């Protein structure tokens, strides 16, 4: 028994004809009817037509990887603050209790005292070799890096969704081709049985038609499996139940004004992976500036305002405190710290050189990526044009062969060969169409033409 995995009203007659002409018993035909009814209700009740833009919009809102990427981007942006770079003063409320015990050897006595204080303390670094300036610049670069990394990840998810969408569209087309092939084979089997009943065909013709119909039935079942797998893959990327029923648009429109030069120019300005290499060079430059600041003196200021009280003996008390204000200016010049500053400076310089080398390599790889993807895109369009012409030829050949077969002037082998050529041509043009579109989407990502909305 054979039954396609997805049923609709257009398939009802085809399946029943196939069942009748395959010699099924009445109870098995009744079972087929029940399965068809269940499948038809399920398809009609919950299927939705989903466009690519709608699929991307759902993924942008619900895909967990995109949500995590946006969260990491916000973390990187939140770190861009002058306070994190030490460019703002620190203000603290300080309370202390100190006990002092001194011995007077001449008087053979001990003097004990306790000082209790509570003060507001402000500290600020006036100059540290511009280390805080470079630190702030590094934070800003890190913020841009976070945004670019999030953009790169989101674009990859959009590409994955687009690929899953068009794989589903291809699976839909392949299922349609398989259904049509099964319909043709069932009609051929029906005619062979009628011819046999009227003595116009031998049993060999009926057996040959039966074998081909069974083969097409198996192909239809396999296409149904691939259809369902493709649908589940798309639903998984959209972060919704994988059993959600939906259909996709099978028409494809190509961008008319895309050129290789435009893609390469846009890639240098917007391609996230290349921009990350550029920002990494700036990051290394700021790291070098921070390392150099260790060789400069540090000038800091501290101001205190508060109350203190000193009592004899061990006593913590603030019943009669004295009010006071103090300020200090400190300069620290590092003379020797075990060559740590020198080693850090050398390593920062090497890291800068490495990042510059990686940027040069990224520029070369970007040109290669654009060239390879562009050539693959143009080649896929040429293949699509060739497959379109091949389909027209296959359809014409099948129509003429079918006419001759009906008149008894074409053999089973000739008819089946024409049918297989038609099936192959229909399958090939569907795959070629979606393959070309996927190459176009990859070019759009490289060229920075994918628009990412903020959430």
From TrEMBL:
Claim: Transmembrane is one of the keywords in the record: yes
Alphabetically ordered keywords of this record: Cell outer membrane, Membrane, Transmembrane, Transmembrane beta strand, Transport
Localization recorded for this chain is:
Cell outer membrane
The protein depicted here goes by the name Outer membrane efflux protein
Family statement: Belongs to the outer membrane factor (OMF) (TC 1.B.17) family.
Q: Name one GO cellular component term.
A: efflux pump complex
Q: Which Pfam families match?
A: OEP (PF02321)
Please tell me whether the keyword Transmembrane is annotated for this protein. Answer: yes
Query: Where is it predominantly found?
Result: membrane
**What is the scientific name of the source organism?**
Prosthecochloris aestuarii (strain DSM 271 / SK 413)
Domain of life, per UniProt, equals: Bacteria
Q: Which InterPro entries match?
A: OMP_efflux (IPR003423), TolC-like (IPR051906)
Recorded GO molecular functions are: efflux transmembrane transporter activity; porin activity
């Amino acid at each position: 028994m054979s039954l396609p995995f997805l049923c609709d009203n257009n398939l009802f007659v085809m399946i029943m004809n196939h069942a009748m002409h395959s010699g099924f018993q009445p109870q098995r035909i009744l079972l087929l009817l029940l399965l068809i009814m269940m499948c038809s209700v399920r398809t009609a009740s919950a299927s939705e037509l989903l466009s690519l833009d709608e699929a991307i919009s759902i993924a942008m809102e619900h895909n967990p990887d995109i949500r995590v990427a946006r969260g990491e981007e916000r973390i990187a942006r939140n770190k861009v603050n002058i306070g994190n770079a030490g460019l703002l003063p620190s203000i603290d409320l300080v309370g202390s209790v100190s006990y002092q015990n001194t011995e007077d050897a001449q008087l053979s006595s001990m003097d004990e005292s306790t000082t209790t204080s509570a003060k507001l303390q402000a500290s600020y670094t006036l100059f540290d070799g511009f280390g805080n300036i470079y630190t702030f610049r590094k934070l800003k670069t890190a913020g841009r890096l976070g945004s670019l990394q999030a953009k790169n990840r989101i674009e990859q998810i959009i590409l994955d969704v687009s690929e899953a969408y068009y794989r589903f569209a291809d699976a839909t087309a392949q299922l349609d081709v398989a259904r049509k092939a099964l319909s043709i084979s069932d009609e051929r089997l029906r005619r062979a049985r009628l011819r046999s009943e009227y003595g116009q065909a031998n049993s060999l013709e009926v057996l040959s038609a039966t074998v081909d119909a069974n083969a097409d039935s198996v192909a239809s079942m396999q296409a149904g499996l691939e259809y369902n797998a493709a649908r589940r893959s798309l639903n998984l990327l959209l972060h919704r139940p994988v059993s959600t029923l939906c259909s996709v648009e099978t028409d494809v429109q190509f961008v008319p004004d895309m050129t290789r030069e435009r893609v390469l120019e846009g890639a240098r300005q917007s391609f996230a992976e290349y921009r990350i290499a550029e920002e990494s060079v700036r990051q290394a430059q700021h790291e070098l500036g921070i390392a150099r600041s260790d060789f400069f003196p540090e000038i800091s200021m501290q101001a205190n305002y508060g109350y203190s009280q000193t009592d004899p003996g061990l006593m913590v008390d603030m019943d009669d405190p004295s009010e006071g204000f103090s300020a200090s200016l400190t300069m620290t010049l590092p003379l020797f710290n075990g060559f740590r500053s020198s080693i850090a400076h050398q390593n920062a310089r090497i890291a800068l050189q490495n990042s510059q080398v990686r940027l040069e390599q990224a520029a070369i790889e970007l040109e290669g990526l654009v060239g390879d993807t562009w050539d693959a895109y143009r080649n896929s369009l040429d293949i699509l044009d060739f497959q379109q012409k091949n389909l027209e030829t296959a359809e014409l050949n099948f129509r003429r062969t079918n006419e001759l077969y009906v008149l008894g002037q074409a053999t089973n082998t000739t008819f089946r060969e024409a049918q297989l050529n038609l099936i192959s041509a229909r399958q090939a043009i569907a795959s070629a169409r979606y393959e070309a579109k996927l190459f176009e989407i990859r070019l759009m990502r490289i060229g920075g033409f994918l628009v990412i909305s903020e959430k």
